[in-house]
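Quick one: structure tokens for this chain, please?
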Amino acid sequence: MVIRSGDMTIESKLKRLIEDKYDNIKNFSEKIDLPYTTVRSILQRGVMNSKVENIIKICDGLNIKSEQLLSSSEEKSTEKVSTKPTPIHRKGVGSTIKMPHYPSIAAGTLAEMESVEVWNVDKIDIPSVMLGSYSNSSDLFSMRVNGESMDKVIPDGAIIVVKPVENSSYKDGDIVVFSYNEEYSLKRYRPNMINEFVVFEPDSSNPNFKSIPVSKNDLYESNEVNIYGKVVFFSTTL
């Protein structure tokens, strides 16, 4: 489905921004680590049925927020299309961070994420004081945990806040949101547990949950495995 904003399609806006910033789609797809055919398909067939993670990568690569693409502005000049991220930090006593809230993430076996319309995603407010040094980050997102494979640290039903970082910035022991063969989970990141493998390890009181070893070649050289960010905050109700 192709969306129109004013008299210009969202896909046309994206294509113009990509060409202005990266010259062509191929350069852009290499920069954001998405196959050229995937980016081209999104631009040709429309964004509404695209995967959430792909849209997030595209918006991050263009340094924009998804809300900007749905602007009702009818200006055609790219000078009228801001490429600055929309601030989400509101200063002052009792200030909060408003961020996207995506469907639940499995803290258990790998599971398909519930479908979500990326342009009508829910929002959630998190007190900025709870996020510490991350309170000024513009790319945070939240999810609800579904499962008990991390229950020694994060209980079932908790809300997590996730910060996307570069692959090289993940540290041993980080709790990460990742996908493997398009199925999603929440585990500890263990890059040194097995030679030539990254292990995604549960942290559970239930011994039935098993680690998921992934070849480092698959992790860094294919699209079968993606890490979307590390958990920087969680909240739960007693």
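The two ends are 43 Å apart (CA to CA).
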